Every structure is written in structure tokens, then in C-alpha cells.
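F.,

This is the one I mentioned.
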């Protein structure tokens, strides 16, 4: 049961970053400081999803085929989230 729950959470975490697209269609989402806060929250969610998937796969040993896909995608998202935070810190936000 624990394996199914962790796989479901990791699968849902793959789709979280794509929810920013409809939000960015609003004018308030494109203006500062809302844009920085929203991007920071999404970057943190991407890093959290990557970390959760890595821990679930390596430590808890949830190693099914769907979890392998989640591991690859969420790891890429986590790297992207770290890059976004790095760019934000480098630009002085």
C-alpha cells in the first residue's frame, strides 16, 4: 500500500509544474512581486517533488516502472528548480 501511495504522489508531482501555464495568463501573475513569489513556489515544489521521488526510489525501494519514469522527470524538474533559484539569487531578487 505504501508503494502505491508514494507512486501516486510522485506521479502527481510530475504535473504540478505545468499548472503554472494557466496561471500566467492573468495580468497579476506577470507583475512583480507576484511573479517572483509564484516562480519561487513552483521551483520549491519541483525540488520537493524530485527529492521525494529520489528518496522513495532509493531509500524506501519503490522501484516499479512508473516510479522509474517519475524519477527521471522529477529529477529533471528538481535540477530546473535549483537553476531557477540560482538565477534568482544571481540577479538579486
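My design for it:
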Amino acid at each position: 500500500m505504501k508503494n502505491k501511495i508514494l507512486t501516486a504522489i510522485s506521479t502527481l508531482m510530475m504535473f504540478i509544474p505545468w499548472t503554472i501555464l494557466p496561471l500566467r495568463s492573468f495580468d497579476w501573475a506577470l507583475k512583480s512581486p507576484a511573479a517572483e513569489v509564484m516562480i519561487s513556489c513552483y521551483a520549491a515544489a519541483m525540488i520537493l517533488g524530485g527529492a521525494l521521488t529520489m528518496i522513495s526510489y532509493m531509500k524506501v525501494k519503490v522501484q516499479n516502472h512508473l516510479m522509474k519514469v517519475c524519477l527521471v522527470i522529477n529529477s529533471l524538474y528538481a535540477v530546473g528548480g535549483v537553476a531557477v533559484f540560482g538565477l534568482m539569487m544571481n540577479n538579486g531578487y
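The mean pLDDT is 93.

Talk soon.
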